[in-house]
Design a protein that fits this description.
Helix content: 25-40%
Strand order of the largest sheet: 3-4-5-6-2-7-12-11-10-9
Shape: globular
Strand content: 25-35%
Order of helices and strands: EEHEEEEHHEHEEEEHEHHEHHEHHH
Largest sheet: 10 strands, antiparallel
């Protein structure tokens, strides 16, 4: 996972989603550049009749659509955070430049700023918005709460500023609580996430800037975008607009954004378990595997031979998964007196 982290303050930045369109490119060349193992889907994607999919086994998903009758060489790619956030920083920047070199444009770019302490809890942010201290271009504010049906425990609140149809939308949520709820390793290292979702022209403009900026300057640029969209000031909803825009920043907001600016580039490795892979196979591949097993031209013997041959294509990440050992669990037997 690519992040920007300060040596003295617990703030990070990562690219959590990337989508782009290439007007004239080969699908196989694009898949090779992105990397991963791709399989062809029976359905289309975003209006394209042909679709290929890839997954990293831990929730990350990539989709590629092509084959439009009027634009046969056009390719569109969506890469979720589980994939692009694990790219090395050099690959993120190379990827953005590669899109430009192919006369393409970025259609979505999510930038996630993490307050890992956290310095500012969700409750403080929510109270400030409801008190009219949020000076923003957004016209809509929404709060969504979630909880576990099995355990009845809360899994957090997400604050949304902006419409899902707009070119800029901000999500604020407790990433630590989300990862803990999902039983992901390393959840203790997270806190409150400020996720800026950019689409269409704004996504492409941001991508161009990141492609040309030195990597250590990315965090300051993203904070500039965030503050251009939202500020928390010592004001109220009833104040005139000019008063609201010139009111002093709230102390916690000033401290938070200055902390975000003081980041440096690091790389974090994502953790993937065999249980994650099993879930992905069950969710994404099981229907197609059943088709292959039932087909007279393939069948169970062909499927077994393909699985055996697949071991010859293992890479280091596959070997690590096979070597994983699940921690033993204690069992207790009750005996009748």
């Amino acid at each position: 996972m690519v992040s920007i982290e300060s040596p003295n303050t617990p703030f990070t930045l990562l690219i959590d989603w990337l989508a782009f369109t290439l007007p004239d490119a080969a699908a196989d060349e694009t898949m090779t550049f992105v990397g991963g193992d791709w399989i062809k889907s029976e359905t289309g994607f975003r209006g394209y009749p042909q679709c290929w999919m890839t997954a990293d086994g831990s929730g990350g998903m990539g989709k590629l659509g092509t084959g439009s009758p009027r634009k046969s060489r056009e390719v569109h790619v969506d890469l979720s955070g589980g994939i692009v956030s694990r790219w090395a920083p050099e690959k993120v920047q190379t990827g953005l430049r590669w899109v430009r070199e192919h006369n393409g444009h970025v259609t979505r770019l999510d930038c996630a700023l993490d307050d890992r302490t956290p310095l500012v809890p969700i409750s403080t942010i929510k109270d400030a918005v409801q008190a009219g201290q949020a000076v923003t271009r957004a016209e809509k504010f929404e709060i969504r709460s979630s909880s576990s049906l099995d355990r009845g425990t809360a899994s957090g609140e997400t604050l949304y500023l902006g419409s899902p149809l707009s070119q800029t939308r901000l999500r604020i949520y407790d990433k630590r609580l989300e990862l803990q709820h999902k039983k992901r390793e390393g959840w203790e290292a997270y806190g409150v996430r400020w996720e800026l979702e950019l689409r269409k022209e704004r996504a492409d403009c941001c991508a161009r800037a990141l492609a040309s900026l030195a990597e250590p300057d990315w965090h300051e640029f993203i904070v500039t975008l965030l503050r251009g969209y939202l500020d928390f000031r010592d004001t109220s909803r009833d104040d005139p607009t000019w008063v609201r825009c010139r009111a002093p920043l709230l102390p916690w907001w000033h401290e938070l954004t200055e902390g975000f600016r003081k980041g440096r580039l690091t790389i974090e490795k994502g953790h993937r378990s065999i249980e994650d892979v099993k879930e992905w196979v069950n969710r994404s591949l099981a229907p197609m595997l059943a088709v292959v097993a039932a087909s007279p031209e393939a069948g169970q013997p062909w499927l077994e031979q393909t699985i055996i041959a697949g071991a010859d294509r293992w890479r280091e990440r596959h070997v690590r998964l096979v070597r994983q050992r699940k921690k033993p669990t204690k069992t207790y037997t009750l005996k009748a007196p």
